[in-house]
């Protein structure tokens, strides 16, 4: 099944660069928690903001707690995405690599809790899966050329599908996952989710809706989780380009 899907996926190997603009970050600590009245904090309810690191090229890395899991997300625009090339498995070490400062107490406590909440014995995580959306026709001209849109670095996995319609799903073992969607016609919804092996259900980390002409990137790095997935939803009859890539 996987070979069938891979026939329409473009992987372009190159050197993955993991540079975070050393010495050019500004950190903020737990007092900076977003107001509960914030219309769009960048993540879903149930996630606790533990720490933030402002990137020198713009944008921000936010560390979120969800009990048995911790996530790092990129919010806003940035010259480079430090999550895309990260293979860190320790959230404290990742924070310190970005911030060049000790991890704040809230992040330390959350990491201790997540480590203590080991995966229940006997539970089974979902298998990796790709549900490829079908090829669409018509609509506006492509927003980017095929070469520009589908250029990917040397990641553990990478999928690029242009001019698609209908729902789709990309499921890979926990690590880093970057999903980029460009709306060509209509409206589509993009979510990034993780498998909660205590509740045995998928939970949403990030959720965005795209209109025609919008470009959205959801970048998530997970700690203490077993499976991530990006889903294209509410997309029947719409048209879009999508690429998903990352490290397991």
How would you describe the shape? globular
Q: Could you state the oligomeric state of the chains shown?
A: single chain
CATH architecture annotation of the largest domain? Sandwich
Count the helices. How many?
4
Computed over alpha carbons, the radius of gyration is: 18 Å
Write the layout of secondary structure elements.
Layout: H1 2-6, E1 26-28, E2 48-54, E3 60-65, E4 70-75, H2 91-99, H3 105-116, E5 129-131, E6 134-135, H4 146-149, E7 157-165, E8 168-173, E9 176-185, E10 188-196, E11 201-210, E12 215-223, E13 227-233, E14 239-247
Can you give a write-up of this model?
By secondary structure, the protein is mainly β. It is built from four helices and 14 strands. A nine-stranded antiparallel β-sheet has the order 1-2-3-4-12-9-14-7-6, with helices on one face. A hairpin with a 4-residue loop joins strand 10 and strand 11.
List the main descriptive attributes of the protein structure presented here:
248 residues, Jelly Rolls, nine-stranded antiparallel β-sheet, five-stranded antiparallel β-sheet, 12% helix
Summarize it.
The chain is mainly beta. It has helices at 2-6, 91-99, 105-116, 146-149, and strands spanning 26-28, 48-54, 60-65, 70-75, 129-131, 134-135, 157-165, 168-173, 176-185, 188-196, 201-210, 215-223, 227-233, 239-247.
